[in-house]
UniProtKB/TrEMBL annotation:
<feature type="domain" description="DUF2264">
    <location>
        <begin position="22"/>
        <end position="382"/>
    </location>
</feature>
<dbReference type="Pfam" id="PF10022">
    <property type="entry name" value="DUF2264"/>
</dbReference>
<dbReference type="InterPro" id="IPR016624">
    <property type="entry name" value="UCP014753"/>
</dbReference>
<dbReference type="InterPro" id="IPR049349">
    <property type="entry name" value="DUF2264_N"/>
</dbReference>
<keyword id="KW-0732">Signal</keyword>
<feature type="signal peptide">
    <location>
        <begin position="1"/>
        <end position="19"/>
    </location>
</feature>
<protein>
    <submittedName>
        <fullName>DUF2264 domain-containing protein</fullName>
    </submittedName>
</protein>
Amino acid sequence: MKKKLVLVLLSMIPFLNFAQNDRAIWVNEMVKMADPVLVSLSEGKLKENMPTEQSSFEYGDRSSFAHLEAFGRLMAGMAPWLELGKDSTDEGQLRKKYIELTHKAIRNAVDPESSDYMNFSNGNQPLVDVAFLAQAFIRAPNEMWEPLDDDTKRMVIEAFKKSRTISDIPYNNWLLFAASVEAFMIKFTDDADYVRIEYALQKHMEWYVGDGLYADGKYYHWDYYNSFVIHPMLIDILSVLQGTKYRLKSLNETVLKRAQRYGEILERQISPIGTFPIVGRSTVYRFGVFQALSQLVLLEKLPVKLSEGQVRSGLTAVLKKLQNAKGLYDKNGWLQIGVFGHQPDMAEPYISTGSLYLTSLGFLSLGLPEHHSFWTAAPEDWTSVKIWGGNPSVKRDKYSN
């Protein structure tokens, strides 16, 4: 009996090492991506150092938006990992470094006297990235918000309020950007506009088309905005509302159920070799395509059909595929436009270098500690591997209302 137990334990060792390596791959890729942004901004040199590549000038020069795009989007994805805080482990000490860089970066981004003070109200684009930065604070209140001094907190709130002057808000997923800013205001201030939240929530309930999918305004768009914006912002807004008496907080269960169905769809879209369908707008956001699935992992709300081992294995396969592309970064470590490497013509006219940091949203699962079962579970085949490998036990997909 003892001999059999030893053999079983020994057989597990490769899987445990594999799982640990998976996390190392994720952490290393995230901080590699983050370094140029956070180091530059912490030193007040982001505007000086960051390039602003654009594939087209059809929408004009986007450079005035690029810095808030890069910072807000990066932080929305990194926040759950930072929220784990510092500890004595190698990874904990790495987090300590990036937490400290983040505090300096926040100050420089919102201080009107800083050379890196950002554009929070000129044009309509700043609303988008104030919302992503708001998500970051909501996702990491203990490490991103609470340690800030009162003066920095005041400047953050003043900067966010500037975005309220933006009136040109498209009648689509952009309603959630305005609502996300107000969710931040609920959580950290006593000055929130609930009308913006109600409007966004009510319209998205109307725009639900079934099977885990929301239309983007009047029409459904075949793209990944259900993952880039819609499901995650609905979940985060409603998480804030749970601490209030606001009546629409009751939508939480419905929204989560729909997100779980969408998570199933995303997992099925990971091919056996770690690729995914490139369709619709903004595919140059790369790993951000899987934000909704990664968020379900973070919240420990994966649908019952998906195991932690298969989701981790599938997402890691995607990340490894993406990181091996030549031209992903320029010679100074900044992201370049494309999906698999440098492919400038794949970008919409509204995309510049800063936009690309939305890829960070795929890393939300790093908010679970390294000893969590998501990271230690034995690797498993994800759905497309099972199907195309001829696995007779794989189950059919099923529509959800």
